[in-house]
Amino acid sequence: MTENTLFLLASIGVISLLCQWLAWKMKLPAILLLLLGGIFMGPVFDWLDPDALFNDLLFPIISLSVAVILFEGSLTLEFKELKEHGRMVRNLLSIGMLVTWFTATLVSRFALGLTWEVATLFGAIVVVSGPTVIMPLLRVVRPTSNISNILKWEGIVIDPIGALLAVLVFEFIVSGKSGALGHTLWTFSSTILLGTTLGCMAGWLLGLALRQHWLPQFLQNAGSLTFMLGVYALSNTLQHESGLLTVTVMGIWLANMRGVPVDDILEFKESLSVLLISALFIILAARIEFSAIADLGWGPVWVILALIFIARPAGVWLSAMGTNLTWQEKTFLSWISPRGIVAAAVSALFAFQLESQGHGDAAILIPLVFLVIITTVIIQSLTASPLANWLKVSEPDSRGFLFIGANQVSREIAKALIKRDIPVMLSDTSYENIRLARMENLPVYFGNPVSEHAENHMDLTGIGNVLAISPYRQLNTLATFHYLDLFSKGHVFGLSDGETEQRASHQFSEKFKETRTLFGEKVTYAMLASQLSQKASIRTTQLSSEFTLEDYRAQHGNRLLILFVISPQGKLTPVVADQEIKAEEGYELISIIRPEPESTEDTSKN
């Protein structure tokens, strides 16, 4: 390996990391900047030539990357969650997907002159959207809970299902090359049978190994990834190109197998996203040839217009029949369907395969799919917020609170806020805390609240503030800095902790100044937990002209700790250090009140 090769590989890593960081700072889908980075490195400056750099390894790298992407996506496909999110999501994943597939196939066949085989494959590829493009858009637009839940779960579930559809179409095309219908059906059926059977067996075996702790903790992530890649290679050896179906089924089995800790595997994927997936996007974009795009003429314009203005609206409105969605909600859903990473990776993978088997027009797949990705991401990212405001489907006020920690302190405070119709979400890595919160009917997220998995799966609809009330100092600090970039200054609150503040003041002093010290300088998690364990109660009290704030304080003395102030208009404001409490007639106060000390009766006789 020459020094120039090492330099190019390092450059891909650095550029991919820079694109991810810029996307995070600008609150844009990372896919957009990664594609632009690859285009500048490849066709613009002619700096990166993936075919020359990787030679015969290019196809295996793309193939393995797609396998990892589909495996990770299928790990999120829990059938119970699909059922919980109603008929609309199920309809979009069936009726909506079929409408998009049919429309894209017809338009690409007649507008671009593709063969029916390639047109059908293109239609299957572009049915996917994906959380990597949907979630950043939802964070900026903040639509109502109905829209947010529908788009989020459609994006999560459509990735493995859409990719599975593309795999099956591809297998049908490849198996049909001999021209014998019987051979075609046999090859197609054997691919489905092997992929389903081997995927279920491998998923069960890996799930059993994880559940029974056959692997030590430090080997579970690496072992799961290695096992998945081994199963993928074995499946391809037994039946040509059946591996993608196998790993998808394997992930679905793991996601729905009881007692299997898949969250750690999903969190491990975050590192792969930067090192592997991001680099893959740059490599694929660097292979785009502007001359190939120019040769397509006006055909891609008609294809994109049909996808945006015909396929998506028709799919949404047909899927919404019988639901209680308003026309405004259906109109907004009809506009939002950006394409993401799976579409790009799968198109590159299948284009290579079909070209090598004599399908000359398969070379159009890559530039055509990338044009669809770039156009939909740019147009819909720029227009989603104005459209949501015009249709009045944005959240009017993100007044809810995300609790970092689902401990007893968080649970008791959250219950007090719910009584005032304040949205809450409790997050924790402790299953016991999550279990207790669920028993009290509190909305929870089980996992690391600053992870990519939380970013894609935690429902923050109506949430605009953060309360870091975890007993773990490092988690509080990380969560504080993470959510400052999402919710901005004045909406992130943390309990006082001398060691945390001292450490933060040296390393992140400027950033830490943007946080608010919750409930007072001397109020710590240990203090609150101790008071609740000593039978302290959280109460809501309304002030009046006869019962003022001073009267309230005089009544309870040093047993009183005021936590929140609620205005007559319903606005809830946490009490913070160095800020005087202003509450007048009509205001309500949420407070912790310690019980009066038990009086000791003197029974001694004089």
UniProtKB/TrEMBL annotation:
Transmembrane segments: 6-23, 28-45, 57-79, 91-112, 118-138, 150-173, 185-206, 272-294, 300-320, 332-352, 364-382
Topology in the lipid bilayer: Multi-pass membrane protein
One GO MF term attached to the UniProt entry: antiporter activity
Compartment list: Cell membrane
UniProt xrefs under PANTHER family: NA(+)/H(+) ANTIPORTER 1 (PTHR32507), NA(+)_H(+) ANTIPORTER 2-RELATED (PTHR32507:SF0)
Any one Gene Ontology cellular component term annotated for this protein: plasma membrane
Protein name: Sodium:proton antiporter
GO biological process: proton transmembrane transport
Pfam families the UniProt entry points to: Na_H_Exchanger
Phylogenetic placement of the source organism: Bacteria, Pseudomonadati, Pseudomonadota, Gammaproteobacteria, Alteromonadales
The Cation/H+ exchanger transmembrane domain, residue ranges: 14-390
Keywords recorded for this protein, A-Z: Antiport, Cell membrane, Ion transport, Membrane, Transmembrane, Transmembrane helix, Transport
Chief subcellular location: membrane
